[in-house]
Design a protein that fits this description.
Layout (H helix, E strand, L loop, with lengths): L7 H10 E7 L2 E6 L3 H14 L2 E8 L2 E8 L10 H22 L15 H24 L8 E4 L7 E5 L9 H29 L1 E4 L7 E3 L3 H10 L7 E4 L2 H17 L6 H10 L3 H14 L5 H12 L15 H17 L5 E3 L1
Antiparallel strand pairs: 1-2, 2-4, 3-4, 5-6, 7-9, 8-10
Helix pairs in contact: 1-2, 3-4, 4-5, 4-7, 5-6, 5-7, 5-8, 5-11, 7-11, 9-10
Length: 351
């Protein structure tokens, strides 16, 4: 056993909360004393006062306490101007795309930019609410997190690659991981519902022969339900010409589904890690499903590759031994339901 790293009073303090069976450097194997929740919280606070960040995990019938020396970095003041600049640039790119969708051309007639408002404002409301859902729950869970960074991209279909927030501190528990993970998709989904409904009410039915060229959008369960509520019957040989708000809503559901795929650093990956840990078979199954679905849309294979390249490994959370509550299990079921409702097996096609 290695005692070189620890002073006697530190070991005595740890033993008050954690029954030590074995020490290997800064790794303690043993049992957290009852009551777990109180002792874990007190031990965490005590160790942080000694300059260590503790990680709690399980190994068979034992608990493992790992100490990481805390590095004190001067916290940089967040540059909110960058967040604002990226948001305004994304607003511009989505306005341009929305205008072109409506047959406008702001480069020839500047006032045509206003044609892009329904699409741009609707899409940014969904993406922004998604990220702010993460942001506010992360703050509630005492996680240091940045404001959303929007990604402006001159893509002719959507004008953006979405948005993201940066977590700058360790996730304290599996409970926090689930709550932060589900918050974004849940809020984004709820915002997308009325936007899609209003957009469908503003859409119109046209004959297929009137469509010279266009993009066919695949149906998710929720989009199909909303469509049937608004349009009771669609005559044969006709289809729906989506209003820009309805298209933004469709994209919002699609982005929600992409984020809830249970892999890597995606929102669904956070939730899956909290439930199953590093369960390799589960990861292989999800990758297999995406590869199979690529027969319908090649983008699923591309998405599987992108997520894999970004890393399928999930960083550990600080507390991996406290069991999830019924509320957390209900939240994971909610995430699964939203994934099933928003997932389109074949998102895009041609007309």
């Amino acid at each position: 056993m290695a005692f070189d790293y620890y002073k006697e009073n530190l070991l005595f303090m740890i033993n008050n909360y954690f029954e030590i069976h074995q020490i290997n450097g800064r790794i303690f194997i043993g049992k957290l004393r009852e009551p777990w929740e109180i002792n874990l919280r007190n031990l965490k606070m005590a160790l942080e006062s000694y300059g260590y960040i503790p990680f709690f995990s399980k190994r068979k019938n034992y608990h493992v306490l790992t100490l990481i020396e805390k590095t004190y970095k001067e916290e940089k003041k967040e540059n909110y101007l960058l967040n604002l600049f990226l948001f305004l640039l994304t607003l511009l790119t989505t306005l341009l795309v929305g205008s072109f969708h409506q047959g406008g051309n702001p480069f020839l007639k500047i006032s045509d930019i206003f044609l892009g408002i329904p699409f741009s404002f609707s899409l940014l409301a969904i993406l922004g609410s998604h990220e702010l859902g993460h942001y506010f729950i992360a703050k509630k869970e005492n996680i240091s997190v940045s404001l959303p960074y929007f990604l402006p991209v001159p893509h002719p279909l959507i004008g953006t690659m979405g948005a993201f927030i940066k977590m700058r501190s360790i996730i304290p528990s599996k409970k926090s991981l689930i709550r932060v993970g589900i918050a974004g998709p849940l809020v984004g989904f709820l915002v997308a519902l009325p936007i899609t409904y209003v957009g469908l009410k503003l859409s119109k039915i046209i004959k297929l022969e009137e469509i010279k060229q266009g993009l066919s959008l695949g149906n998710s369960i929720i989009f199909s339900i909303l469509t049937k509520i608004v349009f009771k019957n669609i005559p044969e040989g006709c289809d729906i010409l989506l209003h820009p708000m309805a298209f933004a809503g469709w994209l919002g559901f699609f982005v929600t589904a992409l984020n809830l795929v249970p892999l890597g650093q995606l929102d669904g990956g956070h939730i899956a890690y909290a439930l199953f840990g590093r369960f390799r078979l589960f990861i292989i199954i999800i990758l297999g499903i995406l590869i199979y679905l690529s027969r319908y849309w090649l983008g699923w294979l591309f998405w599987a590759i992108i997520v894999s390249l970004l890393s399928l490994k999930h960083p550990p959370v600080q507390d991996e031994i406290t069991s999830l509550t019924k509320k957390d299990i209900l939240l994971t079921i909610c995430a699964l339901i939203i994934l099933l409702l928003t997932f389109p097996p074949k998102p895009f096609g041609t007309m």
